[in-house]
Amino acid sequence: MIYDIIIIGGGASGFFSGISIKDRLPNSSVLILEKTNKLLSKVKVSGGGRCNVTHDCLESNKLLENYPRGKEELESIFRQFGVKETIEWFKNKGVKLKIESDGRMFPESNNSQTIIDCFLVESKKLKIDIEMGVTITSINKEKEIFSLQTIDNQYFSKCVVVATGGSNKMDGYAFLQPLGITILDPIPSLFTFNDKNLFFKHLAGVSVPNAKVEIHNADFCFSGPLLITHWGFSGPAILKLSAFAAKHLFDKKYTFKIKICWNCTLNSDDYSLELERFKIKNPKKNIYSNPLFDIPKRLWEQLCQISGIEPIRNWSEIGNKKSNALLKNLLQSEFEISGKTTFKEEFVTCGGIEMSQLNTNTLQHKTIKKLFFCGEILNIDGITGGFNFQSAWSTAWVVSQSV
Ligand SMILES: Cc1cc2nc3c(=O)[nH]c(=O)nc-3n(C[C@H](O)[C@H](O)[C@H](O)COP(=O)(O)OP(=O)(O)OC[C@H]3O[C@@H](n4cnc5c(N)ncnc54)[C@H](O)[C@@H]3O)c2cc1C
């Protein structure tokens, strides 16, 4: 049999494109091929089992800020199908989404199974064929027909949608080799930093809401919440840095220096003014017991200690040298980073299909007609917060309108 459309990959973007294609072309024959024996396995574990479907960010410009790679291409894609359309799409399929205080959006059920059930019910209703345990090993095109090879079988189709997701190894893209598709080296994005010296290890669990983290000798600096862990540093400021500096840090073999400002809410001059004011007003107060600038007590004590201030000292008992040292450690603590750790098993791939090969309005290959790509296989990735699924839905929808 020759299918009208074969979708390779039974994940988020594969199902979203399949359902949207059949909504538009109900009489077309659509087959989804999945290599494992599980469908939508990443959706299942995503967002801690709750599936962070998207982010409450209706303004296109602001939304684009969350994509270290693919910003330019996503501009026209989001114009066609953005967050608003995603919320409506799920609502029309019977899934209501809710917004959390930080903007992340989840199904009201708080359960990723709701999204999976929605996709499976819709696929059945729309008569989409699905086969599992089928790994495509190569694709060829002859006389307008694609042939998809597995180890012991062959599938034929007039149109192919590649939705095989990210992979940290080139092997994951090998099946595209016969078509001569250019793949940008895949490397990891979204990870936490390992502190080489572990000087702050005993503070694991301490977090600050407004840190600023900067990579030494590079133009990467982000602010936001930061968490001290047993192995180093995590939290939104670190994850954002890991995503935007993914390539730079890979090239550095994950050995680099960072500077942390533990509170970045004031102008730099205001910290010393504030500290002086406090010293004058509270000369008899113990320094260790009276943290300033909303710094958690345990972290404040550590900053005092590394600044050479003894636990018994009052503010009147330290001179400018020590208060300057404290300010320096507060605003510019330096750490040597050696290695990375996966964040809650959540990671995405930086790299993949080089976007200049595709028409960005349709996501069709420029020279191999009827070959489309969507989801994380593209050289598009976002930070945590629902942005990766949003690009999966948006690119899948664009493909569904283009086939
Ligand atoms: C633990 C974890 C949690 C996450 N949580 C979130 C979250 O809450 N919000 C968010 O926005 N993003 C999250 N992400 C990222 C998000 O899951 C991915 O960006 C998204 O799943 C990408 O969708 P996709 O369809 O492109 O790829 P996938 O969902 O990975 O699906 C690709 C499918 O293709 C199959 N496949 C691969 N190669 C072949 C082949 N040769 N033949 C046949 N089939 C093949 C794979 O087995 C897979 O099932 C998370 C990622 C992880 C790892």
Care to describe what's here?
This protein is α+β, with helices and mostly antiparallel strands. The protein folds into two domains: 2-188 and 346-402, FAD/NAD(P)-binding domain (3-Layer(bba) Sandwich); 191-345, no CATH class. The protein is built from twelve helices and 20 strands. The chain has helices spanning 12-24, 41-49, 60-64, 71-80, 83-92, 113-125, 236-244, 246-251, 268-281, 297-306, 320-331, 387-402, and strands at residues 2-8, 30-34, 54-55, 97-99, 104-107, 129-132, 138-142, 145-149, 154-162, 183-189, 191-195, 207-215, 221-228, 232-234, 255-261, 333-342, 348-353, 358-359, 364-365, 371-373. Strands 1, 2, 6, 7, 8, 9 and 20 form a seven-stranded mixed sheet that branches. It has a six-stranded antiparallel β-barrel with strand order 11-14-13-12-15-16. A hairpin with a 4-residue loop joins strand 18 and strand 19. Helix 1 (12-24) runs parallel beside helix 6, helix 1 (12-24) packs parallel to helix 12 (387-402) and helix 9 crosses helix 11 (320-331). The chain is elongated. The two termini are 19 Å apart. Bound molecules: flavin-adenine dinucleotide (FAD).
Topology:
Elements: E1 2-8, H1 12-24, E2 30-34, H2 41-49, E3 54-55, H3 60-64, H4 71-80, H5 83-92, E4 97-99, E5 104-107, H6 113-125, E6 129-132, E7 138-142, E8 145-149, E9 154-162, E10 183-189, E11 191-195, E12 207-215, E13 221-228, E14 232-234, H7 236-244, H8 246-251, E15 255-261, H9 268-281, H10 297-306, H11 320-331, E16 333-342, E17 348-353, E18 358-359, E19 364-365, E20 371-373, H12 387-402
Parallel strand pairs: 1-2, 1-9, 2-6, 9-20
Antiparallel strand pairs: 3-5, 4-5, 7-8, 8-9, 10-17, 11-14, 11-16, 12-13, 12-15, 13-14, 15-16, 18-19
Helix pairs in contact: 1-6, 1-12, 4-12, 9-11
The structure holds flavin-adenine dinucleotide.
Flavin-adenine dinucleotide (FAD) binds next to helix 1, strand 2, helix 2 and helix 12.
